[in-house]
Every structure is written in structure tokens, then in C-alpha cells.
Amino acid sequence: MSETAGISTSIASRYAIAVFDLAKEGKAIKALETDVAALETAITESDDMRTLLFSPLYSREQQGSAITAIATKMKLSASTSNVLALLASKRRLFVLPQLLAVLQGMLAEERGEVTAEVTAAKKLTKAQAEKLAKTLTAQVGKSVTIKETVDASIIGGLIVKVGSKMIDTSIASKLNALQNTMKEVG
User: Fold this and answer.
1) Which terminal CB of the chain, N or C, has fewer other CB atoms within 10 Å?
2) Rounded to an integer, what distance in angstroms lies between the CA atom of residue 92 and that of residue 156?
3) pTM here?
4) Right CATH number for 3-109 from 3.40.140.10, 1.10.10.10, 3.40.190.10, 1.10.520.20?
5) Burial label, 32 (beta-carbon count in 10 A; 0-12, 13-18, 19+)
6) For 14-59, what is each residue's pLDDT tens digit?
């Protein structure tokens, strides 16, 4: 991890803990889940949103008024809107993606779930995803939610990350291992 990413995650973690604790005290976990999902979708689907978060060309005031308008339009909860305004006033909107990722983890833990990051060469069918989730649930002992990404460069197989564990059955990694073995021989 780069030093900048580590700093961003550290900042995001502090804000996430505060937001989560406030939501838990106010019995507003469901609202927080809804807000996190809406913001993740907005960041993923909107170039303008990403530009607002990462561009140094906007002043504090511009970021603050824009993010307040966005929060109002998205009908986000008051606590989420306040955190966004605080991030804008501190020029820290760039940590929002990491903040949302940390919150997703905290919310999943609260629900007794764990997220498995699955990389596949092509999109899994619904049946494959369900079977994988069932198998992982039996292994982990918690309900598993699959977050899938497609990467054709792995050629075939899967790369599954659950917490600190990783299972790599991709053809690309097997070819690399075979290549390394052949280098050792000759």
C-alpha cells in the first residue's frame, strides 16, 4: 500500500468509527446502510461526483455547497450530510471512498456478515455465486456476501479473499508457478 493510501485509510477509519458510533447510538444503522449504498453508487456512476471529490480546483466553499446540495438531492440522513459537510470544510472529501469501504465492513460485521472479494475471468452466474457463497459460509461460519470483479487476465479460475485469507486458483497464477519451477530446473 502506498503511503498516501495508508494516510487516507487512516483518516477515513477515524471518521468511519465516529459515524458508525453515532448511528448506533441514534439507532440509525439502517439509514446509514442506505446512505453508504447510495454514495457508493453515486461515486461509481458519476464522473462529476468523482471530480468533486478529487479535484484540487474546487475551493472549500465550492465543495461544501456542492456536497450539501448532493446530500439534499439524494435525501441522505442528517448525520451523513453533516459528515460530508465536515469533510468538505476540512478539504478531506478525497477520503470518502475509503470511508465508505470501512463503513461497509463495520456494517457487515454488525450484521454478522463477512465480504468475500472474488475475482473471476468472466462474470459468475447466479447459481455459481450462490454455490460459492454457500461453500464460503460453511468454511467461515458467518454469512458471506460476494463482491465480484471480473479480470480476464487471470484466464480462468478464481481468486477469493475473505478477511486476511486468500485462495488463488487462477490459471494465470498456476502458469506463473510452472514458469518459476521451470526456471529453477534449467
Assistant:
1) C
2) 39
3) 0.72
4) 1.10.520.20
5) buried
6) 999 999 999 999 999 999 999 999 999 999 999 999 999 999 999 9
